[in-house]
Every structure is written in structure tokens, then in C-alpha cells.
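User: Please predict the structure of the protein below. I'd like the answer in C-alpha cell form so I can feed it into my own downstream comparison script.

Assistant: Understood. Taking the following sequence of 194 residues as input:
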Amino acid sequence: MNEKIFMSLFANSRLARSYPLQDAAPRVRVNGDAGMSDNFDATNWKLQVVRNIGDTIYITMDEIKALPKTDIIFDFKCIEGWSQVTHWGGVTFADFAKKYGLSNETSKKYAGLITPDKGYYVGIDMASMLHPQTILCYEMNGKPLPLNNGYPLRLIIPVKYGIKHLKRIGSLFFSNERPPDYWYEQGYDYYSGL
């Protein structure tokens, strides 16, 4: 029901409020560690994009960083009741999808994202993934993401609560059915929109 209500109001022109750089917190709060196993080795990391079963492309961080960079400073909101103005940098998911020819995939209703250890996973409605402020993020406060905030790549999606901002993306896939979602399975709202 929440998803139906939010989607009736949703528009790409409805942007999360942005803030001046000086308002960004110098120490960014960490919102959980699910999917952030200690034995992660970033040396061989590549983003796995599953276009279809048996059709996966692997994209390096250098390839992601070659795309136009977008910075966003917004009020990150957690379902625990706290919020913090934070500064993130990366590539918009829309630019990424265009570069890698994912128009068939983004015509589906949902995207699913999973950490490399498969310990954390989210399902995101495609309208929110393609929102102009949604980024595949590799920087925090102008520096590479720290390990505890999702190094090497995380999702920043200002139109959602923090439970949808998956840290340390390992793989990405597309579906017309709702992908599994870690916190939805714990009783939280699937849509988790703001």
C-alpha cells in the first residue's frame, strides 16, 4: 500500500533537498554493518551486472570512475530516527545504465542489489533507481569510501531511508517481480520512501 501511495506522488522532478558543502558532517555515521564481512578483498572486485540469466557483465571501478561524476549533499535519514547531512560522490545510476546499454533491463519494475558476501540485499523500484539523485557512490567527503561505509561502491538513494542504501555492492540484477529485501523480511516497509 505504501508503495502505491508513494508511486502515485513520485516524480523525477521531486528532488531531495541539497545542502551547501559546509553543512556536510565531517564524520559520517555508519548505519549498520550487514553484508560487510571482514574477509572482503577489494583487489579483485568488479561490479557484476546480471542482464539476464547467463548474461553477466563485469565492470571495474576504473570504468565506473570514467563516467561523469555527480556529487550530492543531502540529509541521510535512518529508520532508527536519526539523520545527518552527508556528502557523497559517484555516477548517477541513469548515466551508468545508459553507458552500459541497460534500457531493456531498466524497463523492468525493479532492481536488486546484493553484497559480495550475500549477507545484505535490497530491492528498489526502478523509478527510484533512475531518479536523478540516485548514485553508484565511490566517494564520501571527497575521498574514497571507507570500508565501514561501503568501499568500494555503494548505493546512495536520497528518496529512500538508509536501509535501502546498500553498502559494498557486489551484484545488480533486474526483475518484474519484487527482489528479496533484507529489512522487508524483518518486517519493515518494502518501499521505504521519503
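That's the full C-alpha cell string. The first strand starts at residue 47 and ends at 52.
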